[in-house]
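Issue: ligand-bound run for 6-O-phosphono-beta-D-fructofuranose - logging full I/O for the record.

Environment: standard queue, default settings, no custom constraints.

Inputs:
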Amino acid sequence: MRLSLRFIVPLGLALAAIAYAVVPLVDRLTLQWFVRDLEIRAATIANAAQEPLATLVREPRAKSKVSGYLNRLVTDERIFAIGFCDPAGKLAYATATFPPALACPRSEGERRGRLEQLAEGPLHVSANPIAADGEVLGDLVIVHDMSFVQRRSDDTKKYVVWLFAAIAAVVALITVIIAEISWRGWVAGIKRIISGEALLGTRESLKVTAPELRPIARDLQALVRDLEAERHARDESQVTWGPETLRGVLRDDLKGDEVLIVSNREPYIHVRRKDKVIEIQRPASGLVTALEPVMRACSGTWIAHGAGSADRDTVDERDHVMVPPEKPAYRIRRVWLSKEEEQGYYYGFANEGLWPLCHIAHTRPVFRAQDWEHYKAVNRRFADVVVGEARTEDPIILVQDYHFALLPRMVREQLPRATIIAFWHIPWPNPEAFGILPWREEVLEGMLGSSILGFHTQFHCNNFFDTVDRFLEARVDRETFTISHGGDPTEVRRYPISIEWPPAALATQPPVAECRRALRERLGLPADAVLGVGVDRLDYTKGILERFMAVERLLEVEPRWVGKFSFVQAAAPSRSSIDEYQNLDARVRALAERINGRFGFAGYQPIVLRIEHHDAAQVYEMYRAAEFCCVSSLHDGMNLVAKEFVAARDDLQGVLILSQFTGAARELVEALAVNPYDIEQSAAAMHLALTMPPAEQRARMRSMRGLVQDFNVYRWAGRMLLDAARMRNRRRVLSRARAARREAGAA
Ligand code: F6P
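Outputs:
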């Protein structure tokens, strides 16, 4: 009612004001019409009276005849009086009612009709000449009673007021009905916005909103996004991310929800040595380096392939083992694969197919139908294990890497309410490159079962958008970074991975001087030897051959380093049953040998090649002992060696030479960036690194360390988990709103 009054009162007032202004106008108009009417009437009477009056006036005893004639004329109800003025302007004849106050007209102006307000009331007076044979005999003065005009005017005013009142009533009624209908629509729309349905950030969600409210919903979407971004930015900029912060996110934002990780590689491998003793190995894996500290902070379950020779001997009856061994914090759930399965899924499809497909390192991918079948079967097996391990219907599942492209969709089918965050640790190629995969649609569809899909760089996200756009019937929204392909949309985001800060391995490291001394002694190098280091899996994407060629070129163009400078390469054997890797192994060894043959001499080797597993302590000692670290990947999603080297140098010395084709190069801009294919440039960078003044090293290193410290792996995981929390929260709001609507509908 109040809403209706808001429309009716101003409407009524406006119409009253209009009526107030219109009534005098109408009054004046009707008066004018009447006056004109009377003038015509008077002229008509005068014309009619012309002849008889002229005759009568000229007759003898005219007086009684004229008076009689005038008295007859005056019987017309509207005529109040009639008089006849002689040419001298004297009233010669008049009816008894002729007002004494009226005088005969003396001028043309006075002959024209005029209004007079006399004691007898309002009167209209007009004079018309009476003539005969060209002689003017006098003026016939006709006086009309105007009191009827007053009555008519009063009536008109009344009608006008009633008319306006009626218009006001009809308009008010229509307005109230339309306002009421619109109001209900708006209220429903606003309720929908508030409930979150229109704030989902998708075009579909906007469509459910009334058209008038879409701008509001759009603004609110933008506001929510800004607030979220601001909140995240605040979280990320104001908080120093560490294990405790991550635990806080799990506790406060995710309300302690269950977290499951799935990866091919397990973080702890139990291996039986030749002497039958079981030892624990930590694999050389960027993925494990990044996720292990996260898992220690989050607890939960890590599902992985049990590949160690003693893995089966160390699990319980449910294939679980608690880790880390020194302080158990989470559990590994091992999944067993047969030799054929491992061959087809891991070596075959993942590492001879997807790996070279996604890395632009000019190694041709191999796709075998049998490998694909194994890949599908193993993904299915892992998906079933995930579902079996889940204690709730909506766990948070972190799916790692290209080994499990199909798993998100498979899990989604069984746990529709799960929050699935898939992270692709390697680059994503452009659509042309990806398009050669015979099962490209299945792979993309599998990945789009995720709630969130992460890549290291925006470039890889954009490549993914382009690829989906090219090969699937999907809605790709680059404004909200979402892809909808049946079911819930997938958010595609950039999450640059990192390492823990401070790195655990650094805690047990002796001072830099001691590391320098110990490494040189262990490698049989002179105490004053100048060192460069490389730490990699033995993989053709890492640019190890190009790096060695750069060392060779350095020694050619700067012979002063011969005998003084050595490059130490730690290479962890990797995927060694694949031909390409065996070839690489042979070529790396041969090249090192050739260069050593060319520049080496007794007691000096320019390249110190160690193809073996190194534990974290050994790797950190190498980082700390070297003048520079060279990361020359031909293509790399991120490359955590670059970040580890920076983290290891708490003395603020040492130079990082970094391939521009790594994700890390986008963050560590103070490194010496190189194109690893440009051997001259890499050799020049090595020389520059060896001659860089300590002050410049310090400035560059300080800046890079600040970045790695701030953007550590806890922040990487935290950002994904916060995004998952936001998503889960939205879903809860929506399902509450839907339930409320259902209830309201039922009532
Ligand atoms: O770079 C991709 C990746 O999966 C990393 O996450 C990991 O460091 C590496 O490959 C390990 O490879 P693999 O498990 O085959 O030894």
